[in-house]
């Protein structure tokens, strides 16, 4: 388990909604309009409250119909009371109510209770999809490196900078690179509505968003991972190699492609490869204050098999498909990277370390804390924990043709 930043909202924007428009009309003094609007608002709020308590059944979804593709733009200017108050349904999967009978259940933190209630749920509809990302299953063998980035909906700026830098969909040394962000939905309904609009716009502009209808929470990361492997199996089974990481990592795509091309004669994606920052001899954290707390009620095992830090993992298409097969028979565990270790173990495969992949604490060889040496990053495949502007600066720096490594090559990021 690597240290991850929790998806702090980076985007703030407001769209015309009920409240704004109501203020407008009051200013103009149209009393009747105001009354109508207030009633509409009241009604919608009532619906919303009822919905929160599960009173209104999910058959309200049809109200959302117009929000497919181009229609969504129009929705942004639709006056108050519009249908986008209603949340998309979580069809199908019922909570497991017998979990209350597990010893000590009542004392567990809420997110763990929640995990246990929905642990068995593995089928969630896609809200945004890109089934043709790899040109269809048959043509997907043309995709050499598939960059699949776990991104919470609000991390807009991170996605933007990745698109401009290491995640560019282009050809390196004659091979194709493709990019995809994988996401769930925010659990807060207000945030969910905003992000729905944002992701729909991004999806239309860039065609790189895969979003499922489940809460994008830390303990649902394994679910995201498992659903992604399922998606690859169906839509992109021929991709040679997959890089799967967080949206705050910096990838030296040139080096990664170069490294993979170097394997080509012995492994063209059809054999096992699973490399990253190797973590071994660890087990579930039993301290309840920890973000990574996994109580015995979730797993009684005291150790995890070796695995790679989930901040960034490079694997072959073969291994991605093997993980998919194994995962079908393994109960979900909250720690996504450890879960992958369990899948590998079941298949008799081993994760490996690659010295160019740093997911935990990079020791920056620099006298100044706020400076980075591009020469250092030029040698790596991937580093964890970059903020968007650092990614941009570093991406440019490593491409600098006149970069003379040895001395005086620091890029000052701190001002
Ligand atoms: C919990 O256990 C009790 C006693 O075995 C049983 O009567 C009850 O139905 C169980 N509750 C659930 C929700 O499974
Ligand atoms: C529901 O939870 C109980 C108690 O943990 C477990 O034995 C059972 O297998 C679970 N049911 C499903 C469908 O996962
Ligand atoms: C995972 O997502 C499902 C569907 O949105 C939700 O019911 C569940 O509470 C989430 N689990 C956690 C641990 O957040």
From TrEMBL:
In which compartments does the protein localize?
Golgi apparatus membrane
Q: What is its EC number?
A: 2.4.1.-
Q: Alphabetically list the UniProt keywords.
A: Glycoprotein, Glycosyltransferase, Golgi apparatus, Membrane, Signal-anchor, Transferase, Transmembrane, Transmembrane helix
Tell me the membrane topology, using the record's own terms: Single-pass type II membrane protein
* Spans traversing the lipid bilayer: 30-50
**Could you name the domain of life of the organism this protein comes from?**
Eukaryota
Q: Which GO terms describe its cellular component?
A: Golgi membrane
Its EC top class is transferase
Q: What is its main location?
A: Golgi
Pathway where it operates: Protein modification
Q: Name one GO molecular function term.
A: N-acetyl-beta-D-glucosaminide beta-(1,3)-galactosyltransferase activity
Q: Name one GO biological process term.
A: poly-N-acetyllactosamine biosynthetic process
Q: Which family, according to UniProt?
A: Belongs to the glycosyltransferase 31 family.
Protein name, UniProt field: Hexosyltransferase
């Amino acid at each position: 388990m690597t240290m991850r930043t929790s998806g702090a909202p980076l985007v703030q924007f407001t769209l015309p909604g009920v409240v704004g428009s109501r203020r407008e009309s009051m200013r103009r003094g149209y009393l009747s309009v105001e009354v109508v609007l207030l009633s509409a608002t009241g009604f919608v709020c009532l619906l919303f409250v009822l919905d929160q308590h599960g009173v209104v059944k999910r058959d309200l979804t049809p109200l959302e119909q117009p929000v497919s593709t181009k229609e969504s733009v129009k929705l942004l200017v639709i006056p108050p009371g519009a249908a986008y108050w209603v949340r998309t349904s979580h069809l199908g999967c019922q909570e497991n109510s017998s979990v209350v009978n597990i010893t000590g259940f009542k004392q567990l933190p809420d997110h763990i209770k929640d995990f246990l209630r929905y642990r068995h749920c593995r089928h969630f509809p896609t809200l945004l999809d890109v089934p043709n990302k790899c040109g269809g299953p048959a043509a997907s063998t043309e995709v050499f490196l598939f960059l699949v980035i776990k991104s919470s909906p609000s991390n807009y700026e991170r996605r933007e900078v990745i698109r401009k830098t290491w995640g560019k969909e282009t050809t390196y040394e004659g091979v194709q690179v493709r990019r995809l962000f994988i996401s769930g939905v925010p659990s807060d309904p207000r945030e969910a509505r905003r992000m729905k609009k944002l992701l729909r716009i991004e999806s239309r502009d860039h065609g790189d968003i895969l979003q499922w209808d489940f809460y994008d929470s830390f303990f649902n990361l394994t679910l995201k991972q498992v659903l992604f492997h399922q998606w690859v199996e169906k839509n992109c089974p021929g991709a040679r190699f997959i890089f799967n990481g967080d949206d705050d990592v910096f990838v030296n795509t040139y080096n990664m492609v170069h490294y993979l091309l170097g394997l080509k004669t012995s492994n063209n994606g059809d054999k096992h490869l699973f490399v990253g920052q190797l973590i071994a001899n660890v087990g579930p954290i039993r301290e309840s204050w920890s973000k990574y707390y996994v109580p015995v009620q979730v797993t009684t095992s005291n150790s995890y098999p070796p695995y790679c830090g989930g901040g960034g993992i490079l694997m072959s298409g073969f291994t991605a498909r093997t993980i998919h097969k194994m995962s079908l028979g393994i109960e979900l565990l909250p720690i996504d990277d450890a879960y992958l270790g369990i899948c590998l173990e079941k298949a008799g495969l081993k994760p490996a370390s690659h010295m160019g992949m740093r997911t935990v604490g990079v020791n920056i060889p620099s006298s100044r804390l706020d400076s980075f040496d591009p020469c250092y990053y030029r040698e790596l495949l991937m580093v964890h924990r970059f903020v968007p502007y650092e990614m941009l600066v570093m991406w440019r720096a490593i491409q600098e043709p006149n970069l003379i490594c040895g001395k005086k090559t620091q890029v000052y990021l701190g001002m």
